[in-house]
Amino acid sequence: DSTAVLDGFTITAGQANGPSWPDYAGGGMYNDAGSPTLTNVTFSANLASDYGGGMYNRNSSPALTDVTFSGNSSGGNIYHGGGGGMYNYNSSPALTDVTFSTNSATSGNGGGMHNDNSSPALTNVAFSGNSASRGGGMYNGYHSSPALTNVTFSGNSASNRGGGMYNGGSSPALTNVTFSGNSAYSGGGIYNYDSSSPALTNVIIANSASGGDCINGVAGSVDAGSANNLIEDSAHACGLINGTDGNIIGSDPNLGPLTDYGGPGKQVFSLLAGSPAVDAGTNTGCPTTDQRGAPRPAATARHIRAYELASTLPKHPTNAAPPPPLRTWEHYREEAIARICDFLEQRPETQHVQRTDAIPGYQKRGVD
């Protein structure tokens, strides 16, 4: 229920492989009409023969913060089952600072996450190296409208469609999201099908290893208000037009390597100098911090993607005066010796005495 709290746990090697419902769902955790709070939790190497290798949610809205799903797997097929990391049915979990890495839906949909009639909220989340038949990173089934803010999809793959994301009868909202290095037979970055119309704002789709960056299948499209996006593949840009609504089509975003800034959800691509995505985003609806948690400058146009080039994590001002050196006991000892010797030199009865070696550490100052 909503009062359950898990903090600091690792859930591993769970198996939901029974012959009947619900024993083949939720290898690591099964929530039915429950909304627990999870913080600092890792789901690793759990298995479900059908639904939700790491977690299965039914009519539930759990809250997850600093959570990792790694190496979980699910079975099923393209018609039912899937969700190697997480499967949501009629659920709206809230995820903040979460990583989905190397999860798989062996022959089903949604290697990282599968949504069915669900609208989860994702903030500062990374999907990397997940795999499935459709929706290697994320699969959005009918009537799902997830909201993604500051999210990165990297190196996810689908043997069929939608290496990064597959949308079927769904309309997710993506803000400051980056897709890079994903692959599929069709739609290496995103594949839209059957009245799907995702809204894209400040989104980069690039470097797809196969299948094209963004593909609209039968009755698929992107929302007409999609603006300030950068899609490298001009032949597969989901109908967006270069120069219209601030969209940049056919340009290399000049991304740096995927970098781990420490902690779940903080695996992001940096923007290298000269990237056309710099200052090309819109401030409208843009989060005040990037995926790392670094503030975005308020006075300038935001960048297209989950990373703000000009932002750094808090540090001391570079023009501040350097702090004085730390004083150790050796400093005080030498100072005391010098004061004693100065005092002795000022006494008439001791002025003729040579004391340069009389006190360890003393160096005679002034005229002999």
Broad structural category: mainly beta
Q: Report the portion of residues in β strands.
A: 25-35%
Largest sheet: 11 strands, parallel
* Low-pLDDT sequence parts: 310-332, 350-368
Task: Return the string of H and E elements.
Answer: EEEEEEEEEEEEEEEEEEEEEEEEEEEEH
Helical content stands at under 10%
User: Could you say which overall geometry the principal axes of the C-alpha atoms support?
Assistant: globular
Q: For the record, give the distance between the C-alpha atoms at the N and C termini, rounded to a whole number.
A: 86 Å
The number of helical runs is 1
Number of strands: 28
Summarize model confidence as the mean pLDDT.
85
Task: List the keywords.
368 residues; eight-stranded parallel β-sheet; 1 helix; disordered C terminus
Structure description:
With 368 residues, this protein is mainly beta. The protein has one helix and 28 strands. It has one helix at residues 329-345; strands at residues 5-7, 10-12, 15-16, 29-32, 37-44, 47-48, 55-58, 63-70, 73-74, 86-89, 94-101, 104-105, 113-116, 121-128, 131-134, 138-140, 147-154, 157-161, 165-168, 173-180, 183-186, 190-193, 199-206, 214-216, 230-231, 248-249, 255-260, 267-271. A hairpin with a 6-residue loop joins strand 27 and strand 28 (267-271). The longest helix has 17 residues, at 329-345. The N and C termini lie far apart (86 Å).
Layout of helices and strands, plus pairs?
Layout: E1 5-7, E2 10-12, E3 15-16, E4 29-32, E5 37-44, E6 47-48, E7 55-58, E8 63-70, E9 73-74, E10 86-89, E11 94-101, E12 104-105, E13 113-116, E14 121-128, E15 131-134, E16 138-140, E17 147-154, E18 157-161, E19 165-168, E20 173-180, E21 183-186, E22 190-193, E23 199-206, E24 214-216, E25 230-231, E26 248-249, E27 255-260, E28 267-271, H1 329-345
Parallel strand pairs: 1-5, 2-5, 3-6, 4-7, 5-8, 6-9, 7-10, 8-11, 9-12, 10-13, 11-14, 13-16, 14-17, 15-18, 16-19, 17-20, 18-21, 19-22, 20-23, 22-24, 23-25, 25-26
Antiparallel strand pairs: 27-28
